[in-house]
Inverse folding.
């Protein structure tokens, strides 16, 4: 049983907004991946580019199914430079923060959504984005760029000592 009704205005607005965000993010992580000198961070950015492209394809498909336009990629605006104007710390923090904001965007999108197919798509993207943010935070912590957040006491570990 599929959703056959056309997208309504708020669904379209959120699809388009999420699409524009991902188009920009894809170009940025592409640029960041070519200027970082750290393999682990490059792999993080490449994974971010793959995730944003997956999302772009999903949003475009939903819009095009209703004969609606979508913005073009802006990857061609990324130069071929391999010299970074930013530190790895700033680039990782920026992408971790921007991907974290997508979680809020997904919540807003689902809140005005009435179609099951859109909710499932956002849930799939949420799973992917959460994994990216977690891995980016681990890199930040490993490099001493961010402290480990406070955690609840591990009572089992404390009682076994």
């Amino acid at each position: 049983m599929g959703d056959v009704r056309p997208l309504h205005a708020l669904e379209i607005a959120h699809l388009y907004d999420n699409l524009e965000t991902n188009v920009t993010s894809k170009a940025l992580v592409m640029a960041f991946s070519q200027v970082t000198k750290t393999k682990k961070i490059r792999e993080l950015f490449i994974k971010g580019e793959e995730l944003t492209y997956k999302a772009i394809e999903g949003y475009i498909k939903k819009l095009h199914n209703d004969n609606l336009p979508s913005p073009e990629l802006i990857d061609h605006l990324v130069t071929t430079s391999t010299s970074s104007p930013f530190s790895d710390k700033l680039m990782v923090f920026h992408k971790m923060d921007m991907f974290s904001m997508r979680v809020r965007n997904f919540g807003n999108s689902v809140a005005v959504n009435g179609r099951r197919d859109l909710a499932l798509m956002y849930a799939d993207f949420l799973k992917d984005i959460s994994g990216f943010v977690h891995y980016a935070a681990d890199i930040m912590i490993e490099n001493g760029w961010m402290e480990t957040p406070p955690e609840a006491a591990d009572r089992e570990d404390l009682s076994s000592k």
